[in-house]
Design goal:
Keywords: Cytoplasm, Methyltransferase, Nucleus, Signal, Transferase. The protein is α+β, with helices and mostly antiparallel strands and 146 residues long. It is built from 4 helices and 8 strands.
Length: 146
């Protein structure tokens, strides 16, 4: 029996209670996270402080990447990739007609879906509050007074 459990930001696939695969925090996830600490007006982008990063090859899907690019904040994506040492020589601004440039799409695919932060933290740019990343899962829960 297969069971898919979606626990944002991880996907756990189990077969008869045997863990088969977990998807760690990718830069795609990071690009959409923000700090909601009380009083914070600019909680984005979160600064990455990674102590463990890995790259896992994922099948390339040009259509998926092409559809995701307009939803991304390009500057913070490139900044995060540079911090992790995986910028892939991507430009600081989005290129025109990117949907027809397979080399470009493959580079974006790599930083969005293959670079994974396993251990470290995400830091709010305004408050300095750190959110730990453990085993690839960012803990964005706030304390009651936050």
């Amino acid at each position: 029996m297969w069971l898919l459990c979606f626990c944002n930001p991880i996907l756990v696939i189990r077969c008869r209670n045997i863990l088969l695969h977990t998807v760690e925090m990718k830069l795609l996830t990071h690009n959409m996270l923000t700090s909601h600490v009380k009083g914070v007006t600019k909680g984005y982008p979160l600064n990455i402080k990674a102590t463990e990063v890995k790259v896992n090859e994922v099948d390339f899907n040009a259509q998926f990447v092409t559809r995701m690019i307009p939803k991304l904040e390009w500057g913070p994506l490139i900044q995060a990739a540079e911090v992790l040492g995986h910028s892939q020589d991507l430009p600081s601004t989005l290129i025109p007609n990117y949907e027809n440039d397979e080399d470009f799409l493959r580079k974006v695919h790599r930083i969005l879906l293959e670079v994974e932060v396993i251990e470290g933290s995400l830091q709010c740019p305004e408050s300095g509050r750190e959110f730990p990343i453990s085993k690839g899962v960012p803990n964005m829960l706030l304390n009651e007074d936050e």
